[in-house]
Write a structure and sequence with these properties.
534 residues; alpha/beta; nine-stranded parallel sheet; five-stranded parallel sheet; LD_SV2
Length: 534
């Protein structure tokens, strides 16, 4: 997760600038292609290090595409209906999340032990899942290939003839039912663009000079964000994006992890306690020994054979002249135990499972090779998939509500209402003590919060003129990825503390964000409604 966020941060900055320098369509095509290719390659990576590298590159493509797609799409629709159409665009972000959750539910094994068994196959299910998830990315590349460049970008670059051709094509699409209609405007009536950015050409025209010239142009674009008249807008949106992403991504980690904690606590409460028993010449060969605590138990000439030992703890026990054969273990430990003259054959009972034990003349033969990670067989991915699917589904109606209200109510009012209600809703975190309660709360919270997030996306796109639009969005998006990483790390540490901590943190962030928006609503709308910036 962290390496994907890192890739999205890099991609947002680099491709955001490319969108303003080489064009929306070319930059978006390259970003989508990077995401698609490396997303597919990830499924075939043989080692964890290379796997992380391809995930990083795929994340770069994802992060690079997001700033450009907003600018590219908004420059094809009229200002009066921009909020509605861009909200419809955001609906498909939620649909993509639902698609991913459904594919995970259908493809990936749903229990920890089934994951281990699935890994015995050469091409395991999680690899199939990654291949399936890369298909929409390739489809997006194919679809975008047949789309024209943004006419607004062409005008900004002084390419009026190309812009008029695009406008005529759009007019032809919109008047397909009226073949006799003719486009009325000419190049002379087109809105004027900005004069092209002048760069020093003393360095020559070679490849190195071209790279240096592009870098200077990109740097100049970013510097405009930090100078008047955009400095105030950039500073405010920077804080808003950071706070919103910190809270949202942090809670998105806290919800599933807290469900796992509740299930783990319930599982521990249901453990079987065996105390002071003596087993002599017995054979344990059931398929599974699960959730048992042996306290001060004696095992003499006992055989454990062809079984899975899951969440079993031997405490203050005596085990001698016994055999452990063909055993697979998970979260199984021997503590303060005396072991003598035992044989461990074809097992994964590694040295770290013996904690403060007295061991004499034990034989270890044919330990299972490979990764020695103590993987938890008791994980139930069905609950994770269910929680994620419901959370993604609730984003769709929330986005639809935004589409209906955004152009009538206004961006700032939607953000204010959404984040205020999110702060109020966060107080109910204190009462979450069951899986059902957490899932219901997450659904309600996502429904409320997504309206403000969508309004922020659209307002950010409208707050900057076309010549720095994707650079600005990319920069702010990169900051949100940093906030997302910090949020996941911070809220991850809240799992084992009082629910008051995530409750108060979540309450504070949207409230502060709302206060910033309230103080700056006039400034944001003044920029977005300036006819020179449309």
């Amino acid at each position: 997760a962290a390496v994907t966020f890192l890739g999205m941060m890099i991609g947002a900055i680099v491709w955001g600038a490319l969108g303003d320098s080489v064009g929306r369509r070319r930059a978006l095509l390259s970003a989508l292609l990077v995401n698609a290719v490396f997303g597919l390659l990830t499924a075939f990576m043989p080692t964890y290090g290379i796997f992380l590298t391809t995930r990083l590159c795929s994340g770069i493509g994802i992060g690079g595409g997001i700033p450009i797609v907003f600018a590219y799409f908004c420059e094809f629709v009229t200002c009066s209906e921009r909020g509605r159409y861009m909200s419809w665009l955001l609906v498909w972000w939620a649909v993509g999340g639902v698609f991913t959750a459904l594919m995970a539910w259908l493809i990936i094994p749903k229990t920890g032990i089934s994951v281990v068994l699935d890994e015995l196959h050469h091409f395991s299910s999680w690899r199939v899942f990654l291949v399936v998830c890369s298909i929409p990315a390739f489809a997006a590349v194919l679809g975008l290939y047949f789309m024209p460049e943004s006419p607004r970008y062409l005008l900004e670059q002084g390419r009026d003839v190309e812009a008029i051709m695009v406008y005529k094509k759009i007019f032809k699409w919109n008047t397909a039912n009226n073949p006799g209609a003719e486009y009325q405007l000419t190049e002379l009536e087109m809105p004027s663009g900005r004069p092209p950015m002048e760069l020093d050409d003393k360095e020559g025209r070679g490849a190195v000079a071209g790279v240096c010239g592009t870098f200077k142009k990109v740097w100049a674009l970013f510097m405009q964000l930090l100078m008047p008249p955009y400095l105030r807008t950039t500073t405010i949106l920077l804080c808003v994006w950071f706070m919103a992403a910190f809270g949202f991504y942090g809670l998105s980690v806290w919800f599933p992890e807290y469900i796992k904690l509740l299930k783990s606590e319930e599982y521990d409460r249901n453990a079987t306690i065996v105390r002071g028993t003596v087993y002599i010449s017995e054979r344990f060969n059931a398929s599974r020994l699960d959730n048992v605590r042996f306290l001060n138990v004696t095992f003499n000439n006992v055989t454990f054979d062809e079984m899975v030992i899951n969440h079993v703890t031997f405490i203050d026990c005596k085990i001698f002249d016994s055999i452990f054969s063909d055993i697979r273990t998970s979260r199984t430990y021997f503590r303060n135990t005396y072991l003598a003259r035992n044989m461990f054959i074809d097992t994964d009972i590694y040295e770290y499972r013996f904690q403060n034990c007295d061991m004499t003349d034990n034989i270890f033969s044919a330990l299972v090779p490979g990764c020695t990670l103590d993987f938890d067989y008791n994980i139930h991915y069905k609950d994770v998939f269910q929680e994620n699917l419901i959370g993604q589904l609730t984003l769709i109606p929330g986005t639809l509500v935004t589409a209906l209200l955004l152009d009538h109510v206004g961006r700032v009012r939607i953000m204010a209402a959404s984040f205020t209600l999110s702060s109020v809703a966060a107080f109910f975190i204190w009462f979450l003590d069951s899986k059902i309660g957490i899932i219901v709360f997450e659904a309600v919270f996502n429904f409320i919060f997504i309206s403000g997030w969508n309004a922020l996306d659209i307002a950010t796109t409208e707050c900057y003129p076309a010549h720095i639009r994707t650079s600005a969005y990319g920069f702010l998006s990169a900051v949100s990825r940093i906030a997302g990483m910090l949020g996941t790390l911070t809220f991850g540490n809240f799992i084992y503390v009082s629910r008051a901590v995530p409750m108060l943190t979540t309450c504070t962030l949207p409230t502060w964000t709302y206060d910033v928006r309230r103080r700056t609503s006039i400034q944001v709308w003044t920029v977005s409604e300036n006819p020179n910036l449309q």
